[in-house]
Amino acid sequence: MAERESTVPLLSPQAEELLKNLHGWTLSEGAKKISKEFTFKNFVEAMEFANRITLIAEAEGHHPDLHIGWGKVVVETSTHSVDGLSEKDFALAAKIDQLKRK
């Protein structure tokens, strides 16, 4: 049986508990999204990182918002179908953190 996606967003206490498993991610006011800024030596490294995120996002079918600037990528993720956060956001964040460690 396929796993069913929740139709309701995580409550703030649930999101705060899941956030403990991530390093450097912040929970927005109202617990509607999580975000993190990653820093790099230059624009090219930032773009390469953003492009690697796209591969994970496509594989997961879950797409974060990326804000790219010189030497930085800000990642924001939420689940649009629930108008807030789901466990998918935290799983995606963990995979993105793994990219930075490589």
Describe the fold and architecture:
The chain has helices spanning 12-19, 43-60, 87-101, and strands spanning 26-27, 34-39, 65-69, 72-77. It has 3 helices and 4 strands. The protein has a domain at 33-101: Transcriptional coactivator/pterin dehydratase (Gyrase A, domain 2, 2-Layer Sandwich), CATH 3.30.1360.20. The protein has a 4-stranded antiparallel beta sheet with strand order 1-2-4-3, with helices on one face. 23% of the residues are buried. β1 (26-27) and β2 form a beta hairpin. α2 packs across α3 (87-101). It starts with 11 loop residues before the first helix and ends with a helix. GO terms for molecular function: 4-alpha-hydroxytetrahydrobiopterin dehydratase activity. This is Putative pterin-4-alpha-carbinolamine dehydratase. One of its GO terms (biological process) is tetrahydrobiopterin biosynthetic process.
Essential attributes:
single chain; alpha+beta; 102 residues; 3 helices; Pterin_deHydtase; Gyrase A, domain 2; 4-stranded antiparallel sheet; 40% helix
Helix and strand topology:
Elements: H1 12-19, E1 26-27, E2 34-39, H2 43-60, E3 65-69, E4 72-77, H3 87-101
Antiparallel strand pairs: 1-2, 2-4, 3-4
In short:
40% of the residues lie in helices and 19% in strands. It starts with 11 loop residues before the first helix and ends with a helix. The chain is built from 3 helices and 4 strands, in the order αββαββα.
